[in-house]
Every structure is written in structure tokens, then in C-alpha cells.
Amino acid sequence: MRRQDIWIDFGLSGLTKWFAAPWVGEVTPEELLSEAANWGDGAYAPTLLQDASRLLGSQLPTPVIDRLWCAAIGLPYDPAAVPVDGRAWLDEIVRICAARIRRDEPSFTPAPPEPITGGPSRDAVLEEIREAEPSMLNAVEAAGHPGGSEAVAALRRVVVEVDPDLGFRLFLRVLKAYRVPITESRYLRYHELGEDFGYHELVVDDGTLQSVPCTD
Q1: pTM score above 0.90
Q2: Angle, to 10 degrees, between the axis of helix 11-19 and the axis of helix 62-73?
């Protein structure tokens, strides 16, 4: 299956949506991860493996990865309550996804992700984060969660240091998790960026983005 044909949010950003489901406490994290990797007869596994591998190969500290994970799910970041550190969790994602891929390709061996080439510039994604930052901070504060500025800074680091594609998807997931209001003009720009990245339109908005009329 081509990435454009995956009609749900994929990769690490999509996995955070699985962990935001109301029934998440009924299964172990590893069981839920295995279910995600198996989605679409295994179509999800390569995208999830790639995102996890890119983060593992980056210089992002574990607390930044933990904060990103919590923000994308809509949970407060509490270092004392994180059950497993971010890099150990990424290692587990790689292990389970590689095992799922081997069910169809027995000789598969994970390799470093290919270099990022083409696609929208980092500046385009950074600009959207900059414009949405005040609304994001207000929404995080309204939820009673600390560290909104740190979460936004973590998103910027992913865009600059890891992958604008992953950074944009995580940014969208934070907007959805905290029900951040966005203007119709920005909503259209997100879809344009999604087209440039090769997303299915439902990856950008699965019905949970909070679009509001422009006031200017």
C-alpha cells in the first residue's frame, strides 16, 4: 500500500492517536503497538518503523521525546510518571514493527532511513507552528497542563533536527489532542502542505481539527 493510500494518520503521529483512545487501558502498550503495526495487513508498520528510526538516530534528548509523546496524546508531561523512557519505547516500536514486516518479508533487516530530500521546506512547517503557537499555549493552559512552551519548542526541534514531515504530523496531532481552534485559511494551508507531503486528506483532518471562520 502506498503512503498516499493510508487514510488514517500513520507513523508515530498516528500511533499517538491509538494511545489517546478511551479503551487504551484495556490492553498493554505492547499489545496496542502490535495492533497498530498490523493495521492494513501490515501497511502501517513501515511508516511507524521509519519515524521511530529517525527519532532514534537524532540527537533529541529522551525528555524531549517524552514531552512530544505526551503532547500529541493530550496528556500532561510528568517525568515521574513516564513508565518507560522515550528511547526505550522507540526501540520497542522498531522491534515490533520489524517483526511484523518479517512476517511478509522474512529476510527484512531494519536499515537507517533514507536521507530527506524534496518536499515542503522546513520553513513552511515552522511558520505554521509559529502562527499557531499562541492558540496552542492557550489550549494547553486551559487543559491545566504545564509546559506548553516546551512542547512547542520540541515540535520545532523535530522539524529542524529530524524530519519536517514527522514534525508536521505531530503538530497536527497536538492541535487535535487539545482542540486548538484554527482559522479556515490556516486549515486550507495545512491541507496544501499535506498534499505536498503526499498525505491522504484524512491524515490532515479526520474530523477533529477545530476550524473557525476568519475574522479579518
Answers
A1: yes
A2: 60
Residues 14 and 95 in one domain: yes
Question: Domain limits at 134?
Answer: 122-212
Q: Can you give the pLDDT at residue 159?
A: 95
The one-letter amino acid code at 168 reads F
Query: What DSSP character marks residue 50?
Result: H
Q: At what angle do helices 164-177 and 44-56 cross, to 10 degrees?
A: 110
State the distance between the two ends of the chain, measured CA to CA, in whole angstroms: 42
Measured N-to-C along each axis, helices 148-157 and 164-177 cross at an angle, to the nearest 10 degrees, of 160
Using CA atoms, how far apart are residues 114 and 47, in angstroms rounded to an integer?
12
Q: Return d(Cα 111, Cα 25) in angstroms, integer.
A: 33
pLDDT tens across 126-182, in order? 999 999 999 999 999 999 999 999 999 999 999 999 999 999 999 999 999 999 999
Same domain membership, residue 17 and residue 71: yes
